[in-house]
Write a structure and sequence with these properties.
Blueprint: H1 3-25, E1 33-37, H2 43-51, E2 56-59, H3 62-71, E3 77-80, H4 89-95, E4 98-102, H5 105-118, E5 123-128, H6 150-159, E6 163-169, H7 178-195, E7 201-203, H8 210-215, E8 220-223, H9 225-228
Parallel strand pairs: 1-2, 1-8, 2-3, 3-4, 4-5, 5-6, 6-7
Helix pairs in contact: 4-5, 5-6
The structure holds pyridoxal-5'-phosphate.
Length: about 240
């Protein structure tokens, strides 16, 4: 099999899973945006994906994403889905179309400043939510301390002219069932939408748990290994 055939088969399998999950949940597959997470895979794979009709790709480290985005000429949208350090904001805003992992007030402010200076269009931002409330693992916390408090993070994003509050993102904790985790995220999403009606995105679901995410309203699924193959490194 060529690499293009491999990727095409992975993509077909994932699209079939999304369609089955939507049918089971009574949802329209057009409501779901598939983001293929290309971390650890080369720019040439992104070009192959684009040739197969993929529009949205995800990365989790700026050190890898920045050169890859520069090397890809296909018109894909780059989603930054990993933990973001404040000193990387200036770089990320130059290639990302959306950042899914904003979980602090100071991070939101730094990102807003970088977007203001280095972008023409507003940057889509999803607030990463901690499902289990453990601040050690990343994600804003309901009722958390000042910097990581979910409402304050959302407000910091919503108030920044260079950012657009698009919705919420989460990763299911290891010790939760995906069903319980994404049900919790869905409740948070409802609460956020009450305050910010335009914040409609729910970024949830990876290779192992996309079906549960779709049941609970995911609008964006972030899929790496099921499309591109198992990564060598555990990340
Ligand atoms: C790597 C990664 C994914 C994709 O994970 P797979 O299990 O390979 O589908 C999704 N979201 C985030 C934040 C990631 O870091």
């Amino acid at each position: 099999m060529t690499r293009a055939e491999e990727i095409s088969a992975g993509l077909a399998a994932v699209n079939a899973r999304i369609e089955r999950a939507c049918a089971a949940a009574g949802r329209d597959p057009d409501e779901i945006t598939l983001i293929v997470v290309t971390k650890t895979y080369p720019a040439s794979d992104v070009e192959l994906l684009a040739g197969l009709g993929v529009v949205d790709v995800g990365e989790n480290r700026d050190q890898e994403a920045a050169p890859k985005a520069a090397a890809v000429s296909a018109p894909v949208r780059w989603h930054f889905v990993g933990q973001l350090q404040r000193n990387k904001c200036r770089s990320v805003v130059t290639y990302a179309d959306a950042v899914h992992s904003v979980d602090g007030v100071r991070l939101a402010e730094t990102l807003a400043g970088a977007a203001q200076r280095h972008r023409e269009r507003a940057l889509d931002v999803l607030v990463q939510v901690s499902i289990d409330g453990d601040p050690a693992r990343g994600g804003a916390v309901r009722g958390g301390d000042a910097d990581r408090d979910l409402e304050r993070v959302a407000a910091a994003v919503a108030e920044a002219p260079a950012l657009r509050l698009a919705g919420v993102m989460a990763v299911a904790p290891m010790d939760w069932t995906p069903d319980a985790a994404f049900a919790s995220l869905a409740r948070t999403a409802v609460d956020l939408r009450a305050a910010y009606p335009e914040a409609t995105a729910i970024s949830a679901g990876m290779s192992g748990d996309l079906e549960a995410a779709i049941v609970h309203g995911a609008t964006h699924v972030r899929i790496g290994s099921a499309v591109l193959g198992t990564r060598d490194k555990l990340r």
